[in-house]
Amino acid sequence: MTGQYDRVSSGGQAGIRRPNYYGRSCYSENRSWNQAINIDELADKYHVVGESERPHELAPPGHELEKLSEQVWIKFQNNQQTLETYRRKLELWRELAETVRRYNHSYHLEMVGSTISGFGSNTSDIDMCLILDHRHSQDPRSEAIDILEAVCPLFELLPHLEKTELIMAKVPILKLNEKSRGIDIDINVNNAVGLRNTHLLQAYSLLDWRVRPLVLVVKLWAHTQGINDAKQMTLSSYSLALMVIHYLQAGASPTILPSLQVEFREKFAPGADFWKNKKQIRDPAYFEWKAENVNSQCLGELLVGFLEYYASTFEYRSNAISVRVGATIPVKNCMLNRSAKNDAYQWKHICIEEPFEFTNTARSVYDKDVFDRIRGVFYASWQRLVISRDLESIFQTISPIEARAIGARAKQL
């Protein structure tokens, strides 16, 4: 079968259908990079994920949030991934990719995540996905563990890598560390959706110059306030990026971002030619979309609006965030979505639809007290920013006890 789905068996149940995120011939026709990975050529195209030039005007002169907009931009500039760091990550990827290709020619190592999407900081780790050509296992987790155990000794022989560790999680991860700069590397197996959502986020980062500064500053703020760690039952960086994009789609007025999966369905559908579109994304003509009404809000206005939206406007009990449709959707509909990884129990306090798998990317927030703390941090930060108009005010730690108390009564405030 060609096109959108492959029929596979899973957990002993024949006939379950799951998305084929690549297309049948993607490797044989598009993966010639293993012949010669040219770092200079990739770095020359760095404008996709690299250092941003300052816009001519961050805010109209004399605007009440001109200073705040300037602070947001400076925070972004000081923390965004530099060209030097990006080149080093590319060099690491090339070495690891060539290592696994020598071991098995059917293995392909791809960089995913914030390093590529444009939302990475200069201290972000590298996420990589080890892709196997069209292999489907009835026990993907065991297969992933076997593969990672096989390639781990190969990486341990590389002199500048250390601290290899295989994490036996639900999605097994091989963790590596580069000695000289302390760059952490996480490798998973066949996480195909990671390629798709990296491509999607990269596309959103290119649509408007305000997107990248907002996402990175929000991530830095959330990390400072202790609400940016899925392992601690809070929000992942991916969830935070989706929250910002959703706000720019449905919270900001006029709308700043469209739904790319609606406006450009053929480029982001599960059966689309991923590798072709991945290359074409660098072409300015790739997206021919203009908002009906231009939103000229400055970074300061948008950051205040983002915090207010999730502090007091968004209806957490009944609505889910959907970047896929560019709007909110009922949580009950998310629970009913047919997906191999979806179930009704993961849709609790904060509901953010994964644009391709239809799961909840914020399912880690399953504790009511943690949810109250997260909402309290949003509310307290919003109030601080409204009063002070000073970015540093929201980087002063809000105690968990205070945040929980504020969050528990947020609707009444």
Quick summary:
The protein is an alpha+beta fold and 413 residues long. It has 16 helices and nine strands.
Structure description:
It is a single chain. The protein is an alpha+beta fold and 413 residues long. It is 43% helix and 13% strand. It is built from 16 helices and nine strands. The strands form three sheets. Strands 3-4-7-6-5 form a five-stranded mixed beta sheet, with helices on both faces. A two-stranded antiparallel ribbon has the order 1-2. Strand 6 (173-178) and strand 7 (183-189) form a beta hairpin. It starts with a strand and ends in a 5-residue tail after the last helix. Mean pLDDT is 84; it is low at 1-35.
Radius of gyration: 21 Å
**pLDDT average, as an integer?**
84
Q: How many E strands?
A: 9
Report the major sheet: 5 strands, mixed
Shape: globular
- Helix percent reads 40-55%
Order of helices and strands: EEHHHHEHEHEEEHHHHHHHEEHHH
